[in-house]
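Q: Structure for this?
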Amino acid sequence: MKKKEIIIVVIIALCAIGIYMFMKPDVKQESAKIIVTYNDKAIDVIDPNVDGIYEYKGNYGTFHVEVQDGRWHAVDVDCPTQECVHVGWVGVDDYLPIICLPNGFAVVLEDIDQ
Amino acid sequence: MKTKHFVYLTLLSAMAITLNIMESILIGPIFMSLRIGLANIIALITLFMLGPKDMIIVNIMRVFIGNLLRGLIFGSTFWISLAGVTLSSIILLICYRLRSSIVFTSILSSIGHSVGQVLMVMFIYNQAGMAITLPYLLIFSIPTGILTGFVAKAALSRVHANLKVR
């Protein structure tokens, strides 16, 4: 790789970190809510501070969201790709949406105070 | 000469499809929906060995036949895959025109693939929130691009000397 190319790659990496810091919302654990959307419509609001397993029926089969100790993940999902399960546990600090494309679900974090 | 060209094209297409299916079944995503992109190695080899037109053919074959064999043709996964491959192919063509190095081309193509996929997910599912995953994918695309770039470079250095290799 040429020196110019290395500089471009470093700039891209720095931009990515900058965008992440800029886009990351300031969500507080106390006011955080997990919004479950199905085909772009909010169908449920989950409190991340209350442990539990939530079941939903999607386009392909069942979709479960498990909440434990303020963190949540997709588990026991009927879909061929299992990509949402691979995302693993996410919390308020991660701000990572869990999306199950075959079932049409998106699990996103929102702050009710904002 | 034409037959030889077709044989190369067919072999490279078969390799790209095989790697695409093998990766999705045996390896899976390394982070979120991000994969290493082993089939991108073949796209790079095709580009520097046979040229841009053949690279586009190999990439289209890999998306259509790869998804057809996995039973995902014309589903959401197919369109997301097509968007990723389209953007990555455009970037490959630009880098090829600018005579960039293989590793750099691979890194940018890997980034383009991730960006294309995220944009398609945002479009299909109307999930603007997916944009938050872009910085993660951009950062993780750099090491995967370096890996595929070095493998493609090593493979290209071993192929016939009179082929177009940079």
